[in-house]
Automatic annotation (TrEMBL):
Organism: Tothia fuscella
Name of the molecule in the record: Uncharacterized protein
Highest taxon of the lineage: Eukaryota
Length: 160
């Protein structure tokens, strides 16, 4: 069985689940090194990628969810905290508001209030997206230098 999931990149990643062997192989076919797999595994490129025992793979995912390194955004999407993406360091602190939303809604207990939590997570994402947009606009405004059309014409030798 194969499942496609979107993360970073144009086409996302694929999970190949081998039910006979009880393994999962995660593949990113956009990866630069995949050409060598083509040579070693003609017609079965996925066999060149790391393979995990199903139990090990899902135990790892469970640990990531419980620690909120991975978290649900909605019923179809999963988010990653900065710590997961950056591999550690202090970006963890930047994700504390997100973690607090989950904890305040009962994560990871039986009292977890999923609908209310996801609503707050979306609100936080929208606020962050708007702040990022404003920051980007301010940065772009600082890069642009107003130039009169006459100056442009002079630069191109159209007017002396």
């Amino acid at each position: 069985m194969r499942v496609r999931f979107q993360r970073n990149g144009r086409d996302g990643e694929w999970a190949f689940i081998d039910t006979e062997r009880g393994t999962i192989t995660i593949c990113d076919f956009q990866e630069m090194g995949c050409k060598r797999y083509e040579r070693d595994f003609p017609g079965e490129l996925w066999r060149g990628y790391p393979t995990y025992a199903v139990k090990t793979f899902f135990d790892h995912l469970k640990k990531k969810y419980l620690s909120l390194d991975l978290f649900p955004i909605d019923n179809h999407r999963i988010g990653q905290t900065s710590k997961s993406v950056a591999g550690g360091g202090d970006p963890y602190e930047a994700d504390e508001p997100l973690r607090n939303i989950f904890r305040n809604h009962g994560w990871p207990t039986d009292d977890y209030q999923k609908d209310e939590c996801i609503k707050k997570v979306r609100e936080l994402y929208e606020q962050q997206k708007e702040a990022d947009r404003k920051e980007s606009q301010a940065r772009m405004a600082s890069w642009s230098y107003p130039v009169e059309s006459e100056q442009i014409a002079r630069n191109f030798g159209i007017v002396s």
